[in-house]
Amino acid sequence: MKAWAKQWITAALPRPVAVRLWSGRQYRRRSQDFPQGTPRAHGLPGELVVSLTSYPPRYPTLHLTLLGLLRQDTAADRIVLWLARGDEAALPKPVRRLLGEKVELRLVEDLRSYKKLVFALVEFPDAWVATADDDVFYTPDWLTWLVEGQGGEHDSITCHRAHRLTQDAQGRIAPYRDWIWDLEDAESRRPSVDVMPTGVGGILYPPGALHPDVARRDLFERYAPSADDLWFYWCARRAGTTYRKVGPPFVQMGWWSSQKVRLFDDNIVQNDAQIAMLAEQFGNPLAMPCRTGPASAGD
Predict the structure, then answer these.
(1) Which of 14, 20, 106, 129 has the fewest CB atoms nearer than 10 Å to its CB?
(2) Does a structural domain hold residue 269?
(3) For 100, which DSSP code?
(4) Which positions ≥6 away from 12 have C-beta within 8 Å?
């Protein structure tokens, strides 16, 4: 669709209708560009759970992300949508039609972006949990890359998009803006202590990969209230877990209008303060030891 046509739709129609029409067109085009293959079993020695959260400003396009997750070449055992209690009342019909056997809806207390992982870790302690964002089109091979990147060791967290932490001359974690962004080098594809995933690309956590403190609200709201990626990274390193980048370069294909309300705009300013608090309280993650072999959920 030409730019002028998009502008006409936006101006001529109520915004919810315009968003639905334009984003639906995006989904159909991307589905044609990335056709689904034959679904196959994941082959992991346990349950595979895809976990995500959302909130009302993202609801107009949420069903499109869910449809993308439902057409993965590697089939998850379950897809779970975590919503804050009360937010379910605003769910539009396209989302409600997907709930039930296809997508499980679970209502929890509002922990903002933390909802997409901490509740899944508690409810499914022996599962592999793949987190997804609610405003992105994930290609059909998205989950396959995460699963196959586990290899046979299951000792690393796999991710599609990541940054590399750097240090200053004094051995302190450098400011976030000075990290190496969007890693694609060979080193990041081996188990690494300095690779920090970004949630938008999707991350697969093996059982026991994170420190037991990961679900402690009193801690993450104190030290990383708006930086769940940083909190989960620190919890992985405290557990001795490494990270590995998988797949081709991750292209962020967000839905039109879904980026109007973004945590990133705040986090880019606040990350340095939260990095400093995490390092002071828990130590330098680059200096933490690594375990050998997979962990159990009780470790």
Answers:
(1) 14
(2) yes
(3) T
(4) none
